[in-house]
Amino acid sequence: GVPNCVVSLTGHTTPTESLQISANEELIIAGSQSGSIGVWDLEAAKILRTLLGHKANICSLDFHPCGSSVASGSLDTAIKLWDVRRKGLRCLRFSPDGKWLASADDDHTVKLWDLIAGTVMFQFTGHSGPGNVVEFRPSEYLLASGSSDRTIRFWDLEKFHVVSCAEEEAAPVRCVLFNPHGCCLYGGFQDLLHVYGWEPERKVADLSICNNQLIGVSFAQSTVSSFAVDLGRVTKSGSSWAAQEQGASGSAHPHGVFPSSHL
C-alpha cells in the first residue's frame, strides 16, 4: 500500500542532513545544514530543545547505548558530545584524581562519567527519588549519594554495586561530606546532622537542635559520649560557627567548627 505519514516534526529552518532515533524510541534527533541539532519527543511529537554549537553541516549523529548522550560530527571538523536527558541534574563532583565526574540526577540515578572518554562509565540505580548530592571518599573507590527519598547510599567504584544504604530519615538529604580522612560521612538534613559509617551501615553519631541547644551523641568502641551546645552563646564568625561544647561530664572541650547551614 501507499505509505502514510505517522507524525510530522517541525523545527529546523534549513535542510535536515542526518538523524537518529534512540534505542528506547522516545527521542529522535536531527542535524541540519545550518549546524543546529533538534531533539524531539516522539510520543508528544514536539521539539524539546535545539543544540547549538556547530558552525556547519551536521554530517553524522549517534546515540550512546544508554541513551543519555549524543555524538555529532560536522563539516566544521568538530565532534561534540551532548547530554540530551530530559531531566536535570542537581549535583556534580570530581573524583580526587580528576579522571571521573559523578552526577546526582532528577531521574533517580547516580551517574559516573569518564572525563577522558567523555562517556557514562556506569549508572547506579536504587534511589526512589531525585538525587540531591554526591560525594567521593577522599581515599579508596567509594561514592556516597543522598536523595529526596531520605536515604544515603554508598557505592563501590571498583565492582560498581551498592555497599550499603543508611536507614531512611525523616527528611530529604540536603548535603553530604566525608571526613578528610574518609573515616565517616556527615549527612545534613533540615535541622540535624548525622554521622555515618558504611561497613556495615551504621549511624555512629547524631546531632540535633532542641530548645536552642545543639544536642549530640556519639560512640567509639565501648564508649558512649553526649554533649550539648547552648546556641545562644554561639557567635557567628564569617560563614562558620565556633563554640565551646559542654561534655556529658560537665567539663568544657572545644569540639570543632560547624558550618552555619548545619545548625
UniProtKB/TrEMBL annotation:
InterPro entries: WD40/YVTN_repeat-like_dom_sf (IPR015943), WD40_PAC1 (IPR020472), WD40_repeat_CS (IPR019775), WD40_repeat_dom_sf (IPR036322), WD40_rpt (IPR001680). WD repeats lie at residues 9-50, 51-85, 89-123, 124-158. GO terms for cellular component: katanin complex. Keywords: Repeat, WD repeat. It comes from Gallus gallus (Chicken). CDD domains: WD40. Coiled coil: none annotated. Residues 243-263 are annotated as: Disordered. Pfam families: WD40. One of its GO terms (biological process) is microtubule depolymerization. This is Uncharacterized protein. Transmembrane segments: none annotated.
